[in-house]
Specification:
Blueprint (H helix, E strand, L loop, with lengths): L2 E4 L6 H9 L1 H4 L11 H18 L3 E6 L2 E11 L2 E8 L7 H15 L4 E6 L6 H6 L3 E8 L2 E9 L3
Antiparallel strand pairs: 1-2, 2-3, 3-4, 5-7, 6-7
């Protein structure tokens, strides 16, 4: 598998729109509301690119063997760097490899002391996060939705 990290602006808008409207993906995204069309896509990409300009890091587009597989990476969430992975269902089997590559960049390239993951309480994946070394770290509210926060400290 060849994994490439690119900027979201390099992805055809139709590919992002298809991903963000896929019902299998959307059911795991409690903040996804309403239609995600061309205008929403342009605003989304602009917002993610702004994170890079303002913070020096942000989410990437992931390409597996030259094909758009999804997006994610590190995003600022308060004082934390929050990890997100949104993959097309046909690439869900590559999630662990993408995750490991993102963590390597987060800890080695960007030097974060820890990263967080936010999960809605309905997600039921806390046991999987524990196997990856994440520990519970409270709760937070994002746009009126409750999330459980988990933290992974860099291994130094």
């Amino acid at each position: 598998m060849q994994l490439d990290f690119r900027r979201l602006g390099e992805v055809a808008p139709g590919d992002i729109i298809a991903l963000m409207n896929d019902p299998r993906v959307r059911k795991h995204m409690p903040l996804a509301r309403g239609e995600f069309g061309p205008a929403e896509c342009a605003s989304f990409v602009d917002g993610k690119e702004a994170l890079w300009r303002e913070h020096g890091y942000g989410p990437w587009a992931f390409f597996v063997d030259g094909e758009f597989a999804g997006w994610g990476g590190m995003q600022p969430e308060g004082d934390d760097a929050d990890l997100a992975l949104i993959l097309r269902p046909e690439f869900w089997g590559h999630g662990r490899e993408v995750y490991e590559a993102v963590l390597a960049r987060a800890f080695d390239e960007f030097g974060f002391a820890s990263v967080t993951v936010l999960l809605p309480p309905t997600r039921g994946r806390a046991h999987a996060l524990a196997r990856l070394g994440f520990v519970p770290d409270g709760e937070t509210d994002v746009w009126g939705e409750r999330f459980l926060r988990f933290r992974l400290h860099a291994r130094r």
